[in-house]
């Protein structure tokens, strides 16, 4: 019986260790990428009012992810205040985080609210989020970053 208890303890310990290894990254990059926001220039949402693909010519590392920009000027703006330009909830879907789950954020499904960038999973989810963005922001803020565990 003691041997069985020891085996069970080791098994459960390994399970807990393995589960902790699957904690989600603070910045969403996808499974096979290290690019934040799918390689889009986060400053461009604020300056150009639309998604603009970044270039590997203008990149930086921030919070464990690679961030790409369309120009040196936008890279410099980001470096001066990355928290201002990084999407909320690390680029995860804002509607999902509001529901205390995570899902990928699509750089083409975005909205700036109160000078902050939010991404959503797809157009259908974004339409639901846009029905009451303030509600989902309040809920998302409550759940972030605990939803990553």
Descriptive report:
By secondary structure, this protein is of the alpha+beta class. It folds into two domains: 27-85, no CATH class; 87-149, no CATH class. It contains seven helices and four strands. It has helices at 2-20, 42-47, 72-80, 82-85, 94-98, 123-130, 133-143; strands at residues 55-62, 65-69, 106-113, 116-120. A hairpin with a 2-residue loop joins strand 1 and strand 2 (65-69). The longest helix has 19 residues, at 2-20. Mean pLDDT is 90; it is low at 4-21.
Q: Helix amount, in percent?
A: 40-55%
DSSP summary: helix tally: 7
The number of domains: 2
Radius of gyration: 18 Å
Q: What structural class do helix, strand and pairing data support?
A: alpha+beta
In which order are the strands of the major sheet placed? 1-2
Report mean pLDDT, rounded to a whole number: 90
> How do the SSEs run, as a string of H and E?
HHEEHHHEEHH
Provide the β-strand percentage band. Answer: 15-25%
- Can you summarize the main beta sheet? 2 strands, antiparallel
What's the end-to-end separation, in Å? Answer: 34 Å
From the spread of the alpha carbons, the general shape counts as globular
């Amino acid at each position: 019986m003691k041997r069985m208890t020891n085996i069970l303890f080791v098994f459960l310990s390994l399970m807990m260790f393995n589960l902790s290894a699957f904690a989600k990254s603070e910045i969403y990059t996808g499974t096979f990428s290290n690019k934040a926001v799918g390689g889009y220039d986060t400053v461009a949402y604020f300056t150009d009012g639309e998604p603009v693909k970044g270039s590997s010519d203008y990149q930086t590392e921030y919070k464990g992810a690679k961030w790409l920009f369309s120009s040196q000027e936008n890279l410099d703006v980001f470096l001066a205040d990355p928290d201002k330009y990084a999407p909320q909830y690390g680029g995860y879907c804002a509607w999902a985080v509001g529901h205390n789950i995570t899902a990928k954020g699509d750089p083409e499904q975005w909205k700036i609210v109160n000078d902050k960038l939010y991404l959503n999973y797809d157009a259908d989810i974004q339409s639901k989020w846009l029905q009451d963005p303030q509600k989902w922001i309040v809920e998302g803020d409550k759940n972030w970053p605990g939803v990553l565990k």
